Amino acid sequence: MTMFIRLKRCMFILLGLLVFSCLVGYLTVVPQLLEGDKISVEEFKQLTKSHMSSSMTEETLKDGNNYVPYINDSRYLLPLLDYQANGPGWWMNELRKAVILAIHFNRTLVTVPMKTHQRDTENNKLIPFNSTFDDVKIRQLLPVISLEDFKKICGNDLNKDNMIVDPFYKVRARLERPQYTQMFKRYRGFFRKYFGLILPDASSIPNSETEYRQRLQSSQSQRCLAVLRPHEVNVDVGNVERLQKLVTQNLVRASHVRNAVDDIQRHICDGEPFIAMHWRNKTGERCSPKNGGNIEKVCTANLTKELQMMNDLSQNISLAILKYMETVKMKCIYISHPPFQQKIMYDIKSIPSVNFVVSIDDVLKLPCMKP
User: Fold this and answer.
1) Cα-only R_g, the chain
2) How far does Cα 143 stand from its chain's mean position?
3) Contact call for residues 224 and 162 (beta carbons, < 8 A)
4) I want to staple 77 with a disulfide (CB 3.0 to 4.6 A). Which of 61, 69, 102, 361 is the partner?
5) Dihedral (C-alpha) 119, 120, 121, 124: value to the nearest 10 degrees?
6) C-alpha neighbours within 13 Å on the C-beta side of residue 130
């Protein structure tokens, strides 16, 4: 038994280091993705099936101010995001996939609102699309239409013929039929209450992958098409990596968001480059009674033991982070974490050679954040 515990502890050390190395890889890759090679005109034409102005030049593609792609503006794609689970980061990924699907299917994109996080004090508050994203920039990639205008043209009722539902392909764990049916019923209630849309009942869920494929093919004749959970819809869109780059260049945050981020960056870490880390429930604080106690699926008996191990390893992980910071010659780290104290914050702050450890609490105190 002792040997098993030691082996399991070693596994979690390796897991912690693996998670951290993935984080480092993410931090390294993102700037390359945002600032790497641009999509060429010829590639743009190929990726968007030439539904664009024939007068496109390298300069107009570079600055993105002088063209509107010729994607069909009389056929629409409405993304029904997974608002009932996950958070804004996941919805952003779903919206990215919806843009790719709109390009692939030659349709105008319906710009749907974002929503506050489920743990936000204003849960289920809808945020207008143009408050989150730059709606001018996205129009340089494909035509868009508001949800209200979509409903004026297409009505409020959706049916199994004009809604793509794929319960068979899952990016994460696949749900069994009863679970998916219950989830689908929750979606019906949510979209009716907050969007004024009436989804078909659960009998519209395809019973087989063959039926899904048949529905997918026949749905292309529909003028108005909705896609439920677009990130988990299995469609061959061709060169997905290059399409994702194209979307990354055009689906960007609203200018006021970008300006606020620039302002914050100038005021933290003495304006120097810094490491950013997202630390969730990895050391188990959420399982503490003062932070909500035994939360379903988060603080099960087995998981709590694993989280306790991560808590015990927090200092080791902090030292691994320090080693990376020394490698890249940075002395400041921003840690994003849930709204309760995290042991990892204390452990990293205890390292003398780390000059700054910044969190959202520090950001909210900045002069630039005051009304």
Assistant:
1) 23
2) 22
3) yes
4) 102
5) -100
6) 8
The pLDDT score that the predictor gives to residue 287 is: 65
Q: What is the amino acid identity at position 289?
A: P
CB 94 within 8 A of CB 229: yes
* Rounded (5°) CA angle 123-357-253: 45
| pLDDT tops 70 at residue 78 | yes
Average pLDDT over residues 28-43: 44
Q: Average pLDDT, stretch 140-157?
A: 93
Predicted local confidence at residue 159, as pLDDT? 94
Report residue 311's pLDDT band, with 50, 70 and 90 as the boundaries: confident
Reported confidence tier of residue 6, pLDDT bands at 50, 70, 90: very low
| 47: its two tokens | 């990726």
Structure tokens at 334: 């921003």
Q: Could you give the angle at the alpha carbon of 35 between the alpha carbons of 34 and 40, nearest 5°?
A: 95
The single-letter DSSP state of residue 226 is: E
Block residue for tokens 């880390």: 277
Rounded to whole angstroms, how far apart are CA atoms 358 and 268?
8
Which residue is listed with tokens 């919805």? 91
Rounded distance between C-alpha atoms, residue 331 and residue 329, angstroms: 7
pTM, full prediction: 0.75
Place of tokens 């709204």: 339
Residue listed under structure tokens 């699926």: 297
User: Shortest CA distance to 255 belongs to which of 342, 163, 132, 162?
Assistant: 132
Q: For residue 87, name the pLDDT band (cuts at 50, 70, 90).
A: confident
Question: What would the mean pLDDT of 172-194 be, rounded to a whole number?
Answer: 87
- d(CA 106, CA 353) in angstroms, rounded, equals 54
Q: What is the token pair recorded at 304?
A: 């709590």
d(C-alpha 280, C-alpha 307), whole Å? 11
Ordered alpha helix ranges (H), the chain: 2-35, 41-47, 58-63, 88-104, 129-132, 135-139, 147-154, 177-195, 209-219, 240-250, 255-267, 301-312, 314-327, 343-349, 360-364
| CB burial of residue 121 (10 Å; 0-12, 13-18, 19+) | exposed
Tell me the two tokens of residue 74: 């009389």
